[in-house]
Fold this sequence. Notes:
Radius of gyration: 17 Å
CATH architecture: 3-Layer(aba) Sandwich
Largest sheet: 6 strands, mixed
Amino acid sequence: MNAIAPNNARSMSDEExxxxxxxxSQYSAEERVMHCLATFGERVVLSTxxxxxxxxxxxxVAAQQSDIPVVFIDTGYLFPETYRFAEELAQRLKLNLKxxxxxxxxxxxxxxxxxxxxxxKVGIEAYNRMNKVEPMNRAVLELGxxxxxxxxxxxxxxxxxxxxxxxxxxxxMKVHPIIDWTDRDVYEYLRRNDLPYHPLWQDGYVTVGDWHxxxxxxxxxxxxxxxxxxxxxxxxLHELSGQPDFQI
Length: 248
Protein backbone atom coordinates (compact mmCIF):
# COMPACT_ATOMS: atom_id res chain seq x y z
CA MET A 1 0.00 0.00 0.00
CA ASN A 2 1.34 3.41 -0.98
CA ALA A 3 0.59 5.13 2.30
CA ILE A 4 1.50 8.54 3.67
CA ALA A 5 3.52 8.64 6.84
CA PRO A 6 1.30 10.83 9.07
CA ASN A 7 4.18 12.65 10.72
CA ASN A 8 5.56 13.53 7.28
CA ALA A 9 2.33 14.68 5.64
CA ARG A 10 2.90 18.37 6.29
CA SER A 11 6.61 18.29 5.49
CA MET A 12 6.23 16.24 2.30
CA SER A 13 7.98 17.82 -0.66
CA ASP A 14 6.09 18.84 -3.77
CA GLU A 15 7.86 16.07 -5.68
CA GLU A 16 6.81 13.43 -3.14
CA UNK A 17 3.23 14.64 -3.19
CA UNK A 18 3.18 14.62 -6.99
CA UNK A 19 4.48 11.04 -7.04
CA UNK A 20 1.88 9.96 -4.49
CA UNK A 21 -0.89 11.58 -6.52
CA UNK A 22 0.25 9.73 -9.62
CA UNK A 23 -0.29 6.45 -7.77
CA UNK A 24 -3.51 7.36 -5.98
CA SER A 25 -5.06 8.64 -9.21
CA GLN A 26 -5.06 5.02 -10.42
CA TYR A 27 -7.15 3.85 -7.48
CA SER A 28 -10.92 3.68 -7.36
CA ALA A 29 -12.74 6.10 -5.04
CA GLU A 30 -13.30 3.31 -2.51
CA GLU A 31 -9.59 2.42 -2.59
CA ARG A 32 -8.62 6.04 -2.00
CA VAL A 33 -10.84 6.07 1.08
CA MET A 34 -9.34 2.77 2.25
CA HIS A 35 -5.76 4.05 1.92
CA CYS A 36 -6.61 7.28 3.72
CA LEU A 37 -8.26 5.50 6.64
CA ALA A 38 -5.45 2.96 6.90
CA THR A 39 -2.87 5.74 6.97
CA PHE A 40 -4.44 8.25 9.32
CA GLY A 41 -6.78 6.14 11.45
CA GLU A 42 -8.32 8.29 14.17
CA ARG A 43 -6.67 11.42 12.77
CA VAL A 44 -9.01 11.72 9.78
CA VAL A 45 -12.37 13.51 9.50
CA LEU A 46 -15.02 13.66 6.81
CA SER A 47 -16.79 16.96 6.17
CA THR A 48 -20.25 17.34 4.68
CA UNK A 49 -22.59 20.17 3.79
CA UNK A 50 -25.49 17.75 3.27
CA UNK A 51 -25.61 19.16 -0.23
CA UNK A 52 -26.97 17.76 -3.47
CA UNK A 53 -24.60 14.78 -3.75
CA UNK A 54 -23.47 14.43 -0.13
CA UNK A 55 -24.98 10.98 0.32
CA UNK A 56 -22.22 9.55 -1.89
CA UNK A 57 -19.27 10.34 0.37
CA UNK A 58 -21.23 9.79 3.58
CA UNK A 59 -22.19 6.30 2.47
CA UNK A 60 -18.81 5.40 0.96
CA VAL A 61 -16.73 6.44 3.96
CA ALA A 62 -19.13 5.26 6.69
CA ALA A 63 -19.24 1.84 5.01
CA GLN A 64 -15.51 1.49 5.73
CA GLN A 65 -15.30 3.31 9.08
CA SER A 66 -18.67 3.81 10.72
CA ASP A 67 -17.40 5.92 13.61
CA ILE A 68 -15.43 8.47 11.58
CA PRO A 69 -16.17 12.02 12.80
CA VAL A 70 -18.45 13.69 10.23
CA VAL A 71 -18.10 17.46 10.51
CA PHE A 72 -21.21 19.45 9.61
CA ILE A 73 -20.93 23.25 9.68
CA ASP A 74 -24.33 24.69 10.56
CA THR A 75 -24.23 28.37 9.62
CA GLY A 76 -27.75 29.00 10.91
CA TYR A 77 -28.76 29.99 7.37
CA LEU A 78 -29.33 26.58 5.80
CA PHE A 79 -32.52 25.65 3.97
CA PRO A 80 -35.16 23.87 6.10
CA GLU A 81 -34.88 21.01 3.61
CA THR A 82 -31.17 20.72 4.39
CA TYR A 83 -31.76 20.31 8.10
CA ARG A 84 -34.35 17.60 7.46
CA PHE A 85 -32.11 15.89 4.88
CA ALA A 86 -29.22 15.92 7.36
CA GLU A 87 -31.37 14.36 10.06
CA GLU A 88 -32.61 11.67 7.69
CA LEU A 89 -29.15 10.66 6.43
CA ALA A 90 -27.51 10.86 9.85
CA GLN A 91 -30.04 8.40 11.24
CA ARG A 92 -30.09 6.12 8.21
CA LEU A 93 -26.29 5.85 7.93
CA LYS A 94 -25.74 6.02 11.72
CA LEU A 95 -23.25 8.84 11.29
CA ASN A 96 -20.94 10.04 14.05
CA LEU A 97 -22.06 13.60 13.37
CA LYS A 98 -20.12 16.52 14.82
CA UNK A 99 -22.07 19.76 14.38
CA UNK A 100 -20.10 22.99 14.56
CA UNK A 101 -21.69 26.44 14.68
CA UNK A 102 -20.25 29.94 14.27
CA UNK A 103 -19.27 31.67 17.50
CA UNK A 104 -21.86 34.38 16.72
CA UNK A 105 -25.50 33.44 16.11
CA UNK A 106 -27.17 34.58 12.89
CA UNK A 107 -29.25 37.15 14.79
CA UNK A 108 -26.22 38.57 16.59
CA UNK A 109 -24.23 38.80 13.37
CA UNK A 110 -26.95 40.69 11.54
CA UNK A 111 -27.42 43.06 14.47
CA UNK A 112 -23.70 43.86 14.59
CA UNK A 113 -22.60 43.58 10.98
CA UNK A 114 -25.72 43.55 8.83
CA UNK A 115 -26.24 41.13 5.95
CA UNK A 116 -22.62 40.84 4.92
CA UNK A 117 -23.39 38.49 2.04
CA UNK A 118 -24.93 41.55 0.34
CA UNK A 119 -21.71 43.61 0.66
CA UNK A 120 -19.78 42.37 -2.37
CA LYS A 121 -16.67 40.20 -2.31
CA VAL A 122 -15.22 41.72 0.86
CA GLY A 123 -18.46 41.21 2.76
CA ILE A 124 -18.87 37.66 1.46
CA GLU A 125 -15.33 36.75 2.49
CA ALA A 126 -15.89 38.13 6.00
CA TYR A 127 -19.17 36.22 6.21
CA ASN A 128 -17.48 32.99 5.11
CA ARG A 129 -14.61 33.35 7.56
CA MET A 130 -16.99 33.70 10.49
CA ASN A 131 -19.59 31.16 9.44
CA LYS A 132 -17.58 28.46 7.69
CA VAL A 133 -13.80 28.73 7.97
CA GLU A 134 -13.58 29.41 11.71
CA PRO A 135 -15.96 26.58 12.71
CA MET A 136 -14.14 24.11 10.42
CA ASN A 137 -10.80 25.23 11.76
CA ARG A 138 -12.09 24.65 15.29
CA ALA A 139 -13.29 21.17 14.29
CA VAL A 140 -9.92 20.21 12.80
CA LEU A 141 -8.08 21.35 15.93
CA GLU A 142 -10.50 19.83 18.47
CA LEU A 143 -10.71 16.50 16.64
CA GLY A 144 -6.95 16.32 16.08
CA UNK A 145 -7.34 15.83 12.33
CA UNK A 146 -4.32 15.43 10.08
CA UNK A 147 -6.39 14.35 7.08
CA UNK A 148 -9.71 15.63 5.82
CA UNK A 149 -11.91 13.78 3.32
CA UNK A 150 -14.22 15.87 1.13
CA UNK A 151 -16.50 15.23 -1.84
CA UNK A 152 -15.11 17.87 -4.20
CA UNK A 153 -15.21 17.13 -7.95
CA UNK A 154 -13.39 18.82 -10.81
CA UNK A 155 -16.55 19.32 -12.85
CA UNK A 156 -18.18 21.49 -10.17
CA UNK A 157 -16.36 24.72 -10.96
CA UNK A 158 -13.29 26.31 -12.53
CA UNK A 159 -11.70 26.64 -9.08
CA UNK A 160 -11.69 22.85 -8.71
CA UNK A 161 -10.77 21.88 -12.26
CA UNK A 162 -7.11 21.15 -11.55
CA UNK A 163 -7.36 19.65 -8.05
CA UNK A 164 -5.53 16.39 -7.36
CA UNK A 165 -6.69 13.46 -5.27
CA UNK A 166 -4.36 14.63 -2.49
CA UNK A 167 -3.82 18.29 -1.70
CA UNK A 168 -1.82 19.73 1.19
CA UNK A 169 -3.72 22.61 2.77
CA UNK A 170 -1.79 24.22 5.59
CA UNK A 171 -1.75 21.70 8.48
CA UNK A 172 -3.92 18.97 6.94
CA MET A 173 -3.88 16.65 3.96
CA LYS A 174 -7.07 17.01 1.93
CA VAL A 175 -8.27 13.79 0.30
CA HIS A 176 -10.68 13.95 -2.66
CA PRO A 177 -11.82 10.38 -3.42
CA ILE A 178 -14.34 11.34 -6.13
CA ILE A 179 -12.46 14.29 -7.60
CA ASP A 180 -12.52 12.73 -11.10
CA TRP A 181 -16.15 11.59 -11.01
CA THR A 182 -18.73 12.84 -13.48
CA ASP A 183 -22.35 13.68 -12.75
CA ARG A 184 -23.18 10.27 -14.25
CA ASP A 185 -20.82 8.54 -11.81
CA VAL A 186 -22.60 10.26 -8.92
CA TYR A 187 -26.02 9.29 -10.26
CA GLU A 188 -24.99 5.65 -10.73
CA TYR A 189 -23.58 5.39 -7.20
CA LEU A 190 -26.70 6.89 -5.67
CA ARG A 191 -28.95 4.63 -7.74
CA ARG A 192 -26.91 1.50 -7.02
CA ASN A 193 -27.00 2.12 -3.28
CA ASP A 194 -30.56 3.45 -3.13
CA LEU A 195 -29.39 6.83 -1.85
CA PRO A 196 -31.16 10.17 -2.30
CA TYR A 197 -30.14 13.49 -3.79
CA HIS A 198 -30.87 16.54 -1.65
CA PRO A 199 -34.65 17.19 -1.89
CA LEU A 200 -34.09 20.60 -3.52
CA TRP A 201 -32.50 18.84 -6.50
CA GLN A 202 -36.01 18.18 -7.75
CA ASP A 203 -36.72 21.91 -7.44
CA GLY A 204 -33.93 22.92 -9.82
CA TYR A 205 -30.98 23.35 -7.45
CA VAL A 206 -27.71 21.76 -8.57
CA THR A 207 -25.83 23.10 -5.55
CA VAL A 208 -27.22 23.90 -2.11
CA GLY A 209 -25.65 26.17 0.50
CA ASP A 210 -27.11 29.00 2.59
CA TRP A 211 -30.63 30.00 1.57
CA HIS A 212 -29.70 33.66 1.03
CA UNK A 213 -26.85 32.92 -1.39
CA UNK A 214 -28.00 29.91 -3.43
CA UNK A 215 -29.90 30.09 -6.72
CA UNK A 216 -31.60 27.58 -8.95
CA UNK A 217 -29.68 26.58 -12.06
CA UNK A 218 -32.29 28.17 -14.34
CA UNK A 219 -31.79 31.52 -12.58
CA UNK A 220 -28.00 31.32 -12.28
CA UNK A 221 -27.12 29.87 -15.66
CA UNK A 222 -24.35 27.60 -14.32
CA UNK A 223 -23.44 25.76 -11.13
CA UNK A 224 -20.57 28.17 -10.55
CA UNK A 225 -22.90 31.18 -10.69
CA UNK A 226 -25.44 29.57 -8.35
CA UNK A 227 -23.48 30.56 -5.22
CA UNK A 228 -23.19 34.21 -4.16
CA UNK A 229 -24.25 35.25 -7.65
CA UNK A 230 -20.91 34.07 -9.01
CA UNK A 231 -19.02 36.77 -7.07
CA UNK A 232 -17.21 34.06 -5.13
CA UNK A 233 -17.54 30.32 -5.74
CA UNK A 234 -15.51 28.99 -2.81
CA UNK A 235 -16.55 29.60 0.77
CA UNK A 236 -12.98 29.57 2.05
CA LEU A 237 -12.82 25.95 3.17
CA HIS A 238 -11.25 24.77 -0.06
CA GLU A 239 -9.08 27.73 -1.05
CA LEU A 240 -5.51 26.50 -1.17
CA SER A 241 -4.09 29.91 -0.38
CA GLY A 242 -5.63 29.52 3.06
CA GLN A 243 -6.25 32.29 5.53
CA PRO A 244 -3.39 33.73 7.62
CA ASP A 245 -5.40 33.55 10.83
CA PHE A 246 -6.62 29.97 10.39
CA GLN A 247 -4.93 26.58 10.54
CA ILE A 248 -6.78 24.62 7.86
